[in-house]
Design a protein that fits this description.
The structure is a homodimer. By secondary structure, chain A is mainly α. The first copy, chain A, has a single domain (10-133), classed as Orthogonal Bundle (Arc Repressor Mutant, subunit A), CATH 1.10.10. Chain A is built from 7 helices and 2 strands. Chain A has a two-stranded antiparallel ribbon with strand order 1-2. In chain A, strand 1 (91-95) and strand 2 (103-107) form a beta hairpin. In chain A, helix 2 packs across helix 4 (75-87). Chains A and B meet through helix 1, helix 2, helix 5 and helix 6 of A and helix 1, helix 2, helix 5 and helix 6 of B. The structure holds a DNA duplex.
DNA sequence: AAAGTAAGTCAACATGGTTGACGTAAAAGG
DNA sequence: CCTTTTACGTCAACCATGTTGACTTACTTT
């Protein structure tokens, strides 16, 4: 009868553990996006622009469709930010070679510079957390976060201890499914 | 000269590691919020309502100010969702005892039910990821995520290996600072 | 009694999502 | 070759949720 929240009730502990994780995700994401948002505001841009710049920088030559699939927004919504970024010369479009309907997207030098400026904070924040937590913790972090992501997008990442060592290579090669 | 991205260039590896973390955070958060968003849409509510319901459920009797501090939004913005939630009887307000200017917020039974319905998905998603990753990985996950959060909000969490074991207790007791 | 604080309100505006309808050019398939 | 499908773009309307700024009310603190 004593110690209801203790040994006697492992379900309570589990619930508490899960809620802590939910909240940490909220706070981490909130703080993770806070600083770039401030920089962006000073340039008349928003978080949506950051996401586009980030993923175009990360996947040079990416198609509009693939970008839409990553962001999970409509093309009309993407259009607003993307056309702005093209006008302001952060991004260039060029027709696809095999398929000339495609607009392949890449960052300009200006885009690359902004991208680095925006993620500098985020990289530093994570680097510090990684450094303080140690290599083993980092591996656990990757493993758990990987498991939270929808299965279809997991192959984007090479996480030691998950899938084959060719996971990311598979995705890169088999873009057409 | 050979293998520029390999052993010869640890900085590249580090950059890649950090970018993977940035992206995993993005994807995890995207997928983590996706399912509740769908439920909410069916009720004429949005993610903002979910956040309010969550944190009120987690901190019964929380003041409006404290809620604003957690969410980092303005009171005008909170007002819209909060008054809606009160109208729809998900949340009740009662005056503070010591300070009658305060409106202490709690969930109604209806609010509790919605909260559980909304987080059921999220808890299940995390539980599965935890189960598959193992206890050690979970500890690493907590440790790293904890380090990503702004220092001022870290004491909300009890993470083994960080701070004293009384970290969360301290916050709970010392709400007035 | 005066100043400060917790909360609410009204109004105007910005960002970034949505749906729906329609257009154009290129590719793919009968 | 002609039809259908696909990739991308555009116009328009609307909605959710954030912002700033000004002002009010009730209560607490000094």
């Amino acid at each position: 009868m004593v110690d209801v929240k203790g040994i006697a009730n492992p379900l309570f502990l589990r619930e508490e553990e899960l809620r802590q994780a939910i909240e940490m995700l909220f706070f981490a994401y909130r703080d993770f996006t806070g600083e770039p948002d401030t920089i962006l505001a000073g340039l008349g841009l928003g978080r949506a622009h950051h996401r586009v710049i980030y993923f175009v920088g990360r996947n040079p030559g990416i198609t509009v469709s693939e970008l839409l699939r990553i962001l999970r927004i409509t093309k009309q919504s993407l259009s607003r930010v993307l056309s702005h970024l093209v006008e302001e010369q952060y991004i260039v479009q060029r027709p696809g070679e095999r398929d000339r309907r495609q607009r392949l997207l890449s960052l300009t030098q200006r885009g690359v510079e902004l991208e680095r400026r925006l993620t500098a904070n985020q990289r530093e924040r994570i680097a510090t957390a990684f450094r303080n937590a140690g290599a083993e913790a980092v591996q656990g972090f990757n493993l758990v976060l990987h498991g939270i992501i929808d299965p279809e997008d997991r192959p984007r990442f090479d996480v030691p201890g998950v899938g084959g060592p060719t996971a990311a290579a598979r995705l890169k090669a088999g873009g057409k499914r």
